[in-house]
Design goal:
The complex is a heterodimer of chains A (223) and B (449). Chain A contains eight helices and nine strands. With 223 residues, chain A is α/β, with parallel strands linked by helices. Chain B folds into two domains: 183 residues, no CATH class; 193 residues, no CATH class. In chain B, α1 packs across α12. The relative contact order of chain B is 0.18. Classes of the chains: A alpha/beta (223), B alpha+beta (449). At the A-B interface, α1, α2 and α3 of A face α1, α11 and α12 of B.
C-alpha cells in the first residue's frame, strides 16, 4: 500500500472551549501507483486530511502509514525529512516563493530533501512546457504557468505519494485539463500514487476511483 | 540551493528595507573605523613625538608641563635653566647628546612657535628610526632658521625667506632681527611640522634674551645653592669681558653697536633634550640614573616623554577615546536594533513563505537558520561596506586633516582592533536574528498556508 489511514480522529478546539470533530476515518487506503479523487464540500475536512497525511498536522488518534512508514510514530524532524523525500504536494494557490525563479522554486524543494538535481529540475520544467521560462519569477508567469511550476516542484523529489489540494480550482478552464493531465502523467511515469481532493465533479469525472469524503468521514468536517 | 542562497534571496526580495538597515550598519561601522584609525594616529603622535629622546630636562615643576611645552609647544615653559647646567649635562659620561632648547617666542606671521636650538637637534631621530629630511641647509650661522613643513606651507615661506619673531606672549614686542630660512623639514607628523627652529646663538643675540648680569648671578646662586660671590668667582672671565664691552660701548657712542657672543652667565635654556649612550638596557639605566640624580637635586627634573605621555593618554585622552568608541558602539547597537525591527516586522508577511518551506520538508531548525543567516548577511555585508567606507573616509579626509591640523594620517592605516569588527557583528546578528528566527521556528504550518 502507498497510503493507509487507520482510525484517524482529529478535532479542533472551539473558542468556547468545546471540541469540534473534523475527521473520524476508520480506514482508507491507496495502493502504489493508484490515482484517486476525494470529493468533498468546502469545510468538509479535505485540507485537514491532506495535512494529516502529509505529516503537517498530527492526528489526535490513529495511524497514517505512507510507503510502509507509520508517520504518526516519527518525531517531527524525521517526519519533515520524510515529507521532503517521499511526499509531493500541489496546493490550490500554488504557494510558489515570489523571490525565486521557476527553476529555483523547483530546486528549493529538492534542497530540503538533500538531493538538489539541477538537470532533473530543468527536465521537469521542460516537461510541463516551461523550458523557456526557467528564470522567470512567479509574478512574471501566468496563473496556469505558476501551477505548472508547482506540479514540477511536487514531482522533483520523485515522491511515492502525491497530494493535490484542488489543483485546478484557481486556473481557467483551458488550463485545468492541461494541469490535470500533466499531474496524472507525471505520477504515472514515476509510479507515484495520487490523491487529489476537489469539490469539482468535472475533475472527479476523469478518475476511475472517486471517493466521497462524507461517505467515510464520520465527523463530517468543519473546514 | 543552500541556506545562504535562500537567505540572500529573501534579502533581495525586500531590497529596500534590507539596503537601508545594511546601510545603517555600514555607517556605524564606518564611523567606528574612522574613530579607531584617527585615535590610533593621535595616540601614535602623542606617544612617538619625542620618543627619540631618553629624557627631557627642565626646571622643577609639572613633568607634563615640561613635556607639553618642550615637545608639543602647547603649554608655557616652566622656568629656565642656567647654561652652565646644560654644559654639565652634556659632559656627563653616559650622555650621548644634550640638546639645548629655548622656547616661548613665536613667528610674527602665523604665530608659529619658535625653538632656539643647536644644529644637533636635527641629528637625532624624531621618532626611533625616522630622521629629519631637510630640504636646503641646516642651521649653520647665527641668523639661520629651519622651518617645519606646515610653517612653510601656511606662511608661503621657502629657503631664503626672512622673518621676524615676537617676544614671548607680547604681541607688540617684535624683535628687529631677521632670521633667514635655510631649510624646510619634510613632513614628520609631529609638532616639528608647525615649528620654526632658529640657531640658539641668534636666539640669545636677540635683545632681551640675554639675562641681566646681576639677575643671572642671583638666579644661578639660588639654582646651585651657592653664594653670589662663588658664582662671580666661577664666571670671573665672563664678567671681566662684560665689563670691558660696557666700557668700550660707553666711550664709543658714535659707532654702531657691535655684536658680541652672549657670555655664558647671561645664557639660559628652557630645557635640554637628552639622548643616552648605548641602547636598550644600558640607555634605560643611564636614564634612571640621571632622573634619580635630578630628583635628589632641587632645581631641575628629568621627564621621560614616553612615560609622561602614556600617563596622559591613559588617564585623560584614553578616556576620551573610549568615550568615542562607546559612542560608535552605541550607534552600531542602534543599527542592530534596526535590523531586528526590519526582520521582525517582515515576519508576519513571511509566515506563509516559511510555512511553504516547512510544507516542502524544511525542518524548524532550517527556517530558524535561514532567518539567522539573513541577519548575519545583513550585518556582515553592512560591516564590510562600513569598513570600506571608513577607510575611504580616512583616505579622502587624510589630506584635508593634514592641511588643517598637521596630523599625518596614513590613508591605508589598519588597526588590529578592526579584526574584531566582523566577529562582533556576527555575534550581534545572532542576537538580533534570534527572536525573529524563533518566530519562524514556531510558525504553525497548517494555519499559515
Amino acid at each position: 500500500m502507498s497510503l493507509e489511514l487507520k482510525q484517524i480522529r482529529k478535532s479542533y478546539r472551539e473558542p468556547g472551549g468545546g471540541l469540534l470533530p473534523i475527521l473520524d476515518i476508520a480506514e482508507f487506503a491507496i495502493s502504489q501507483g493508484e490515482q484517486a479523487v476525494l470529493l468533498g464540500q468546502s469545510g468538509g475536512g479535505k485540507t485537514t486530511l491532506l495535512n494529516v497525511i502529509a505529516g503537517i498536522t498530527a492526528p489526535d488518534e490513529g495511524h497514517v502509514i505512507v510507503d510502509g512508514i507509520n508517520l504518526t510514530r516519527l518525531i517531527e524532524p524525521a517526519r519533515d525529512r520524510f515529507r521532503a523525500e517521499r511526499i509531493g504536494i500541489v496546493f490550490q494557490t500554488f504557494h510558489l516563493l515570489p523571490a525565486f525563479t521557476a527553476l529555483e522554486n523547483v530546486l528549493l524543494g529538492m534542497s530540503f530533501s538533500g538531493r538538489p538535481d539541477r538537470v532533473f529540475a530543468r527536465q521537469l520544467l521542460e516537461r510541463v512546457g516551461l523550458g523557456k521560462r526557467l528564470q522567470h519569477r512567479p509574478n512574471q508567469l501566468s496563473v496556469g504557468e505558476q501551477q505548472r511550476v508547482s506540479v514540477a516542484r511536487a514531482l522533483a523529489n520523485r515522491p511515492r505519494l502525491m497530494l493535490a489540494d484542488e489543483p485546478t480550482a484557481s486556473v481557467d478552464l483551458a488550463n485545468q485539463s492541461n494541469i490535470l493531465s500533466l499531474l496524472r502523467e507525471g505520477c504515472r511515469e514515476h509510479n507515484i500514487s495520487l490523491l487529489l481532493v476537489t469539490h469539482s465533479p468535472e475533475v472527479s469525472a476523469q478518475f476511475e476511483r472517486v471517493e466521497n469524503l462524507q461517505d467515510f468521514n464520520r465527523a463530517g468536517g468543519a473546514r | 540551493m543552500n541556506l545562504l542562497t535562500i537567505a540572500f534571496k529573501s534579502i533581495q526580495q525586500r531590497w529596500l528595507p534590507s539596503f537601508l538597515t545594511g546601510l545603517s550598519v555600514a555607517l556605524g561601522i564606518a564611523l567606528m573605523i574612522a574613530v579607531i584609525i584617527l585615535n590610533g594616529v593621535v595616540t601614535n603622535i602623542f606617544k612617538q613625538s619625542g620618543s627619540g629622546y631618553d629624557l627631557v630636562v627642565g626646571a622643577k615643576g609639572s613633568d607634563l608641563q615640561l613635556v607639553l611645552s618642550t615637545i608639543y609647544h602647547i603649554d608655557n615653559p616652566i622656568e629656565n635653566l642656567p647654561w652652565r647646567f646644560y654644559k654639565e649635562l652634556s659632559e656627563l659620561p653616559y650622555v650621548e647628546r644634550a640638546i639645548p632648547v629655548n622656547i616661548g617666542d613665536t613667528t610674527e606671521v602665523g604665530n608659529f612657535p619658535i625653538v632656539g636650538t643647536t644644529p644637533q637637534y636635527f641629528l637625532v631621530d624624531y621618532v626611533p628610526d625616522k630622521s629629519f629630511l631637510i630640504q636646503g641647509d641646516g642651521l649653520r650661522g647665527t641668523w639661520d632658521a629651519v622651518i617645519g613643513s606646515q610653517v612653510a606651507r601656511k606662511n608661503g615661506w621657502k629657503v631664503g625667506s626672512q622673518f621676524k619673531m615676537v617676544h614671548a606672549g607680547q604681541a607688540d614686542h617684535v624683535h628687529d632681527e631677521l632670521f633667514t630660512v635655510r631649510g624646510v623639514i619634510a613632513p614628520t607628523g609631529t609638532p616639528n611640522d608647525r615649528t620654526a627652529f632658529v640657531h640658539i646663538d641668534g636666539f640669545f643675540a636677540l635683545a632681551g634674551h640675554d639675562k641681566p648680569v646681576d639677575e643671572a648671578i642671583t638666579r644661578e646662586a639660588k639654582f646651585y645653592g651657592e653664594t653670589e660671590a662663588e658664582v662671580r668667582e666661577f664666571y670671573k672671565k665672563d664678567l671681566e669681558e662684560i665689563a670691558r664691552h660696557q666700557h668700550e660701548e660707553a666711550g664709543d657712542h658714535a659707532h654702531h653697536h657691535h655684536h658680541h657672543d652672549t657670555p655664558d652667565i647671561q645664557k639660559e635654556v628652557t630645557s635640554v633634550l637628552i639622548v643616552m649612550k648605548g641602547e636598550g638596557y644600558q640607555a634605560a639605566n643611564a636614564t634612571n640614573l640621571l632622573q634619580n640624580k635630578l630628583k635628589d637635586g632641587f632645581q631641575a627634573q628629568g621627564a621621560n616623554t614616553v612615560q609622561v605621555m602614556d600617563r596622559l593618554l591613559t588617564n585623560l585622552v584614553g578616556n576620551v577615546r573610549y568615550a568615542f568608541l562607546y559612542l560608535t558602539a552605541l550607534i552600531i547597537a542602534v543599527s542592530g536594533i534596526g535590523i531586528f525591527v526590519s526582520i521582525y516586522n517582515s515576519m508576519s508577511d513571511r509566515k506563509k513563505e516559511i510555512a511553504i518551506m516547512r510544507a516542502l520538508g524544511a525542518r524548524r531548525q532550517t527556517v530558524l537558520s535561514i532567518i539567522m543567516l539573513e541577519s548575519v548577511l545583513l550585518c556582515v555585508l553592512g560591516g564590510l561596506g562600513g569598513i570600506l567606507l571608513g577607510h575611504g573616509l580616512v583616505y579622502f579626509a587624510s589630506p584635508i586633516i593634514e592641511a588643517r591640523s598637521g596630523l599625518l594620517i596614513d590613508p591605508i592605516a589598519f588597526d588590529p582592533l578592526e579584526l574584531a569588527v566582523i566577529p562582533g557583528l556576527i555575534l550581534m546578528a545572532i542576537l538580533v536574528g534570534l527572536i525573529p528566527g524563533l518566530t519562524a521556528y514556531r510558525t504553525d504550518v497548517a494555519e499559515s498556508l
